[in-house]
Amino acid sequence: NQTTWQPGARRGQTPISRQPTDERVRLMKDQLIRAKAYMSFAPPTSNSHLVKELRLRIRQVERVVDTATKDSDLPR
User: Which residue stretches belong to region Disordered (predicted)?
Assistant: First the structure.
C-alpha cells in the first residue's frame, strides 16, 4: 500500500493512495445494466441484427467483467 502526497498538500489533508482502482470495472458493469435494460424493450420475437449483436456483446463483456475486480484484471 503506497501512499504519496499530492503536490501542494497541506498538513492534515488525506493522502492519495495508489491502489489499483475499479472505476473502469464499475463503469462496464453499469453499461451492462443499461444494455440489458435496452434489450428488455426489444420485442421477444425480434431477431434483428442489432438485437443479436447486442446479446452477443453482452455475453462477451459479462464473461470478462464477472472475473474482474479491479481495472488491472481487464484485458487490454
Answer: 1-23
Enumerate residues 6+ apart whose C-beta is below 8 A from 3.
15, 16, 17, 18
Q: Which helix (H) or strand (E) holds 4?
A: strand 3-4
Q: What is the pLDDT of residues 26-71, one digit of tens each?
A: 888 899 999 999 888 888 777 788 888 888 999 998 888 888 777 6
CA dihedral 50, 73, 65, 30 (to 10 degrees): -90
In whole angstroms, give the CA distance from residue 33 to residue 18. Answer: 29
